[in-house]
Write a sequence for this structure.
């Protein structure tokens, strides 16, 4: 996996592969050649290792139960709110958009699937951080646009909102999604222009978000 990640952004030769992975030359070469044999790596026209076609073939059959469950719920939430809806997972000190739907017309808050956003601002970030471990909270709160007291309030009421935190002119509301053990595994969010969402978007959309979250959890 270290080798695959090392060539993901930019193809490289053996010397660069060793630099990126910290692996001994012989080990890096053996692993790369083995991955090439299984078509997980290929050599491009410059002779550099690059991601191979077998990765795409594997990805086409991969299933994400959370995204599958959300696919039945997000369209209805978008229809109810008339705004953009997103699903986020935490990855270290960032959050990743794993699903997104936009309204068919009008000004919208576009967040592309795969986009990495900071954990220091936004309602989705607050949800994911509120139920994360203390070490992660300490690492992020020092630079966040909210405080530990904010997170305590979010845990009490069960949802979060933000006004022009991540982007000027954008408001959002988010709620947690839990697995069967009760652990928070994602955040579901509605976002849009403040002119439409208002300065208290939670009062308007929190109940619908919590209902959508519960629907996803039932499908999980």
């Amino acid at each position: 996996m270290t080798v695959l990640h090392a060539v993901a952004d930019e193809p490289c030769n053996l010397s660069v592969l060793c630099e990126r992975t910290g692996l001994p030359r012989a080990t890096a070469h053996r692993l790369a050649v083995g991955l090439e044999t299984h078509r997980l790596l290929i050599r491009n026209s410059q002779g550099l290792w690059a991601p191979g076609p077998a990765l795409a073939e594997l990805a086409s059959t991969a299933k994400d139960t959370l995204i599958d469950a959300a696919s039945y719920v997000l369209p209805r939430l978008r229809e109810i709110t008339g705004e953009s809806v997103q699903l986020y997972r935490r990855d270290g000190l960032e959050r990743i958009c794993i699903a997104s739907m936009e309204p068919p017309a009008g000004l919208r808050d576009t967040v592309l699937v795969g986009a990495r956003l900071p954990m220091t601002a936004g309602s989705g970030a607050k949800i994911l951080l509120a139920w994360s471990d203390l070490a992660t909270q300490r690492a992020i709160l020092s630079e966040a646009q909210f405080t530990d007291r904010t997170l305590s309030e979010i845990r009490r009421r069960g949802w979060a909102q933000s006004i022009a935190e991540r982007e000027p002119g954008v408001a959002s509301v988010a709620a947690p999604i839990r697995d069967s053990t009760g652990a928070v595994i994602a955040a579901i969010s509605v976002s849009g222009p403040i002119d439409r969402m208002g300065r208290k978007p939670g009062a308007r959309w929190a109940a619908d978000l919590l209902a959508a979250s519960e629907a996803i959890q039932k499908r999980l």
